[in-house]
Design goal:
2 copies of one chain form a homodimer. Chain A has 22 helices and 18 strands. Chain A is an alpha/beta fold and about 525 residues long. Chains A, B: This is Acetolactate synthase large subunit.
Chain lengths: ~525, ~525
């Protein structure tokens, strides 16, 4: 058995049976070995950022890592932005990065680069397999490292000849470390804070964003008067009727400051203490008010669900949580504004949908207008590196082939990883992408004014404008095999979304929103 | 004056007056400052890999660095593959990478990552500006570091508040270190080797690939009997009638070994000693035969042109070089094979064209059939990280607005940085892209068999196949504002290329080549 065969069998044995791949020459034995191990599903992407974003979306929904297959340092570089997002989401992932054969390494061939240093910038675990006899054991440890709590990226560097040489054997899975329980003394301390009656916010993130965590948190809120809030961009959030109305901390610093104003105790469950996305002149770096104490009920990677249940038991034993009733907005008519787009989505969102949200500025009203929809999951852009939406939708759909995936996708961001559409088509996945087509980097137009930049003259404006020429997403999607339509009114969007949701396979709707300026 | 204004003015003063940009929030003051410094031309790209590849193509043609403007670590990551190619080309480039404000750095905001470590993997020079008072001096040193011989990538990390704070001033340019001359004793030694009469190859690369270097090398060859050869993928090569017939070392290892078989002396001028792109089972890692001595006339970064002239003077004073006569292939008819495509290009290649070659397997016959065309420059993929072609064409066209640019672009590779087409259109550049549309990663199909992989079954084949769905490059290009046509015969290609070359602005021709398999 050669190294590649042992590697793939070991991954499959450890529960990693999907690989998002963009291979090159140094990975040809891995590719060849796929025919020997039919349990491993390989999904071809045309760009590495699609592979890494897909592995992120897959793991967020499947709850276990996918593998990626990347081609040396430059291939891993192409995947880096979405690896960054995955790192911020604490997504478990096993990167397999091919490298030159061991004998070739010292020759400084054209594709040689410092893979190890690059991998270190986003990985929780990095190893270079040194021989075919090692590779399976390395892979087993990689899976355990990735899947242990909190999830992280494990990068296994695979020299070509370690793949192709014989002498390898399959390794048994290595134990995955589960999320540790929070000590009861910590729960007691937080319960004591809540009993003070001072203004408190229970701030959720990570695994607290599932149904069970939210329901326990809602009991705490009902019994103690604490407000519920969540991090701005959770990796995965359960949403919809029957769950609490969980406000997200707003993105704009001024609004975040207002949202937490007056809070005396910020109680973290699965989340880090919030900070602003960027620093701005004259503003503090985070929204936590002076005089507010931050308490950690559970740190990321600890078992927030059990901690919240324990806390509810202790602080709010008989409380009845306030939960959202089922409700949908009416289908809007007329102009296709961002809010009308949100209403269409809220009105039509199917049962058990997976929403991949990279709407950015066009997401106004989305949270509000989908909050009473049927139960669904919501995946956000965790690390701020745009271009995650189309790939994440790919991965989520591979993980959950029986659930509809709806991608709400800013136009500028879509172009970073646009070739993901081809993979949507090749795999014939039930993904409906709604492009929020406002013809600009609208978020940067906001930011240009917010940072107090003075010269918003023509040359600056031109760097934030996606017109001249306009991007025709219908043509682009069609060129990659995804059926596409254009919606210019609320009615058209409703009609096209309704049809896309009942037809199998991928669709794209170019939602033409008002131009700015 | 704020840091951003001082930075841009300093860059312009040092001769860097083009910036390929994909900015984000942390770069908004740089963007705003563009209105204050109209001498700086900013070119928007929709993806950082387009910006870095364009800066590479620009500098190869302009002979001086462009700047890039990138958004934190993930933005730089998106640019990494083409930064790798630029590093291998020894291209001078000034990366400006925005980062969080200094006060925000420690907060570990979502976009925080180890920019410095990442930059270290491809940069020859890295610095983080610490205050507005430093930034201009840092920029001046960055330009000098990039432009000094051999060219390299200088990465300047620019915290947002170093941009926005006042207290900066313009810095004077710093002296650029020119290529050092090769000592005459070295030239004497090489001349002595050549006088032995033993089989010798004069192996050119880097700055020896310009007209002057090639003409001097041709005199040496004529006077001494040495064979002329060049590296496989030179950053920039002068070509065409009136220059010597400069064979390139073939890419496939077996052919490279055959090309150098029997050579006793390999004389390097501007090139490194060749190595194979990849290691393969049972093959040596490089094509230099046993018993062949490698002599360095000039190392990369030394003045190869003067060294070759000195050598010609010493070893071949009266030799008349053999130079190519003007000749063009006849326009082919019928099936559009790669060779027919090459003949069409050779027949129509305009005077002073810039050819950007990422044809990969579809490039068969291209070198031969364009060798007698009018004088032109040829830019190759230096680092093997595919997705450089469309961006390099952008940069080359910005550098040389009066010269036609022809991109010969493999289909799979095109998809890595396809949004470059939008920038072709926005800037209305005279770029004609010919997509070599064979519907597969054909080079990997070669490699899959070459590495001796056994199971070339259906699952492996599917990972190398770009069909299902096929990519419609006419639709994709049209969707980004580039007029596009499809050629299915040699006549159609000739007709469409002829028209594209006389019409101003960008064009794309989808050249449908025979499918493999």
């Amino acid at each position: 058995m050669n190294g590649a065969q042992a590697l793939i069998r070991t991954l499959v044995g450890a529960g990693v049976d999907v690989c998002f791949a963009n291979p090159g020459t140094s990975e040809m034995h891995f590719v060849a070995a796929l025919d020997d191990v039919p349990e491993m599903r390989a999904v071809l992407t045309l760009f590495e950022g699609v592979a890494t974003g897909a592995a992120d979306g897959y793991a967020r929904m499947a709850g276990r890592p996918a593998a990626t297959l990347l081609h040396l340092g430059p291939g891993m570089g192409n995947g880096l932005a979405n690896l960054h997002n995955a790192r911020r989401a604490r997504t478990p992932m096993v990167n397999v990065v091919g490298d030159h054969a061991r004998s070739h390494k010292r020759l400084d061939a054209p594709l040689e680069s410092d893979i190890d240093a690059l991998a270190g910038t986003f990985s929780g675990w990095v190893r270079r397999s040194l021989s075919p006899a090692d590779v399976a054991a390395d892979a087993a440890v990689a899976v355990a490292a990735a899947a242990s709590s909190p999830g992280s990226i494990a990068t296994l560097i695979l020299p070509a000849d370690v793949s192709w040489e014989d002498g390898a054997d399959v390794a048994a899975p290595v134990r995955v470390r589960p999320a540790p329980r929070v000590p009861s003394s910590v729960v007691d301390d937080v319960a004591a804070v809540l009993s003070s009656g001072e203004p408190a916010v229970l701030f959720l993130g990570g695994d607290a964003m599932g149904e069970e965590g939210q329901l326990a948190a809602a009991r705490v809120a009902a019994g103690t008067g604490a407000r519920l809030m969540s991090e701005t961009f959770p990796a995965r959030a359960a949403r919809g009727a029957g769950l609490p109305d969980l406000t997200r901390l707003p993105y704009p610093p001024e609004m975040a400051l207002a949202a937490l104003a007056g809070t005396r105790h910020l109680l973290l469950a699965g989340a880090e203490a919030p900070v602003h996305f960027f620093g701005y002149p004259g503003l503090p770096g985070h929204p936590v008010p002076d005089g507010c104490t931050v308490h950690v009920l559970s740190a990321p990677g600890e078992d927030a669900v059990t901690a919240l249940r324990d806390l509810a038991q202790r602080a709010a034993a008989d409380a009845e949580p306030e939960l959202l009733e089922a409700s949908r907005p009416e289908l809007p008519t007329g102009e296709l504004t961002p809010r009308a787009m949100a209403a269409v989505i809220g009105a039509l969102l199917p049962e058990r949908a997976i929403v991949v949200d990279e709407a950015l500025t066009s997401g106004v009203g989305l949270m509000e207008l989908t909050s009473g929809s049927p139960r669904h999951d919501w995946l956000a852009l965790t690390g701020g590196a745009i271009g995650d939406g189309l790939p994440m939708a790919l991965g989520a759909a591979v993980a959950c082939p029986d659930r509809p995936v709806i991608g709400i996708q800013a136009d500028g961001s879509a172009m970073y990883t646009i070739s993901a559409l081809w993979s949507h088509a090749r795999e014939q996945l039930d993904i409906t992408t709604i492009v929020c087509d406002n013809g600009s980097y609208a978020i940067l137009e906001h930011e240009l004014s917010r940072v107090g930049a003075q010269g918003d003259g023509k040359r600056a404006a031109r760097l934030l404008d996606l017109g001249g020429p306009g991007l025709d997403f219908v043509a682009i999607a069609s060129g990659m095999g995804v059926p596409a339509t254009r919606a210019t009114t609320a009615e058209e969007l409703a009609d096209q979304l309704g049809r896309a949701l009942v037809e199998p396979g991928p669709h794209l709707i170019d939602a033409v929103l008002p131009r700015r300026g």
